[in-house]
Every structure is written in structure tokens, then in C-alpha cells.
Design a protein that fits this description.
Rossmann fold; N-(1-d-carboxylethyl)-l-norvaline Dehydrogenase, domain 2; 2 domains; six-stranded parallel sheet; three-stranded mixed sheet; 15 helices; 58% helix
Amino acid sequence: MHSHAPVGIIGLGLIGTALSERLIDSGVPLIGFDLEISRCEKLRARGGVIANSVRDLAGRSRTIIIAVYSGKQVEALFGEVEDGAGSARPVVVCTTTCGPDEIGQLARRATSAGIALVEAPISGTSAAVRDGTATALVAGEAASIESVNTLLNILCPRRVRVGAIGDASHTKLAINLILQNNRAALAEGIAFAEALGLDGHAFLAAARESAAYSHAMETKGEKMLTRDFRPQPHISQTLKDAELILSEARRQNLHLPMTAIQAELLRAAIALEGPDSDSAAVIEAIRRRPAVTEVLK
């Protein structure tokens, strides 16, 4: 593998596309792959190169970013990364939010294959990634992280070192627990204010200046008020993370009552608005409760 080999990215969904745009805009040669042809064409139009397969991408990349939906997908494609890379072992940066067991298994597999792994799940929407305000939670060996430091500066100028492989996934899940419940509380507050006859925008403006403030008001408040459910994260992704949180809590013999209720709201919102809606659509599970009951029968 030559020093001028491009960076590879596997997964061109919302986050993968936003990361790709940051790299291309910074002049980094980029090769990408996704199973959806339309996503690949968008990358090509932005100036990226499209690989024929994960194996092809691995053989042409000095560093590989994985930005797919789930840990299971990461595990499924990792064998192709190993095979395609041959003797030239790239550094793999995994931005996917994985379950603790999934990232542990991936780390053992990478070590066995002689591949350096950096865990870097991202806290923030695709819009936040695009404008550089998302935060990467970075874990792994210091030498591995240092080897991709310049790349990480481009991908996520804001980042936090959180320890060894696995610590980033744990941290991301705990952060997501707070974030998701803040979002659900905001949805419930807006729905309550609307039911009281208050002007939604006036209420949101007052809430932003109050002790109840959370960043969810900035990222989701207007979307909830206007029913703008164009995705920044897909709500199905939000539910996937909620289910990871609840699964890990059960392993720790910990009951999370707020998160369990919030996950039910997500399921109801998906039934009403579809899995590709924005996470702000959780408000519809509260606004349209009678409809939710009918949908879920």
C-alpha cells in the first residue's frame, strides 16, 4: 500500500456521507463503498471514488473508516477487510455505535489479524458532523490513535479520549441514554404546552431561557413544532441504540424505567411515521396517542 493511497470509508448513510464530505472538502483522496448504488453515486458526484466491494476498498486504502448501521454489520464485513488488505494492514477507525460485546469481539479479531483498531463512535447528528460540532469518543492504543490523529482532526475536531477499546461504546451508550430521555422530555413538554393552548414557538423560546434547557431544544425543538421529520439520525437508529442500552442494563441487573418507556415511544413513533423519519418524530407518539393505540393493536 503506497503512502498516497486514499482513505476508505465503508457505509455512506447519513453519518458516513457527512464524514465523506468533510474529507473531500479537506482535499483527502477518498474511496467509498455502500450497498446502495444511489449513495455511491452521490459520493462520486462529490469527487470520491467508488470501490467495487469492501475487499477492493481494503486493498486500496491506508486507513479505513467504518460507518455502518450496527455492530453486527461491522462484524459481517470485517473478514472482507482482512482479506482485501493482504499484507499491508490499514488502520481501521470504527465510528459505528457497537454493543460492548460486539466491539470486544472486533478488537480481538483485529489484534489477531494485525490490524490496528481505533474506536470512535460519534455523539451528534449528521448535521453536527457536517459542521464540525459533533464529538468523537476515541478509544484504543495510543500509537494507533496517534497514527490517525490528522484524519481525526478533519473528521471530528471535537473529540474526547475515553480509554481502552470498549470504553467508547460504554460512554456513547450512557450519553445516548441521557440524550434520548432529554429528547423525549422535550417532546412531552411541547405536546403538553400545545394541549394547554400555548403558542409552540413562544413556549420553546421560554424553555430555552429556563432551568429546563437542554441542547435537544436547539436540534429538535423546531423540527418537533413544524413536524419536520427529514432525518438527521433515522429514528430506527435511535431505537437500535435504546435497545443496546436496555440490553446492557439487563446484563448489569439494572432497571432503567425512563429509557424503557422512551423505547416504547420510539416504537410507536416508527409505527406512525416510519423508520426513516428523524428522531424528533417521537413527539407524534405523544400527540397522537389514540392513533398509536390503533396502530399497535
